[in-house]
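Hello forum,

I keep getting stuck at the same step: I have a sequence, I want structure tokens, and every attempt I make locally crashes halfway through. Rather than fight my setup again tonight, could one of you with a working pipeline run this one for me? It's a single chain of 85 residues.
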Amino acid sequence: MNRHQRVPEAICDKRANIARLDIEAMLLYYGAEIPEGRGSRVRIALNGVRAVFHRPHPQKETGRGAVASMRRFLIEAGIAVEKES
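Reply #2:
Ran it on my machine without issues. Output:
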């Protein structure tokens, strides 16, 4: 399993502290467009789904809330599937 496949798995497992750069690299791998927004905002478009996220700062890892939001985004975009509890 390559790095770009491990990141969505970590997101779906709701793990925190995933490196922001790993998430952005994974999104680009799957064909996302990531234009810069204002300040720490980034706009992401993937498979017809659009969202705005904030880059974490000063830390480089994402927190639980951002991971949960990214999980919902990936499910809507068809990259990840919702795991049964």
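Residues 3-76 form a domain with the Metal Transport, Frataxin; Chain A fold (CATH 3.30.920). If your local run keeps crashing, start a new thread with the error log.
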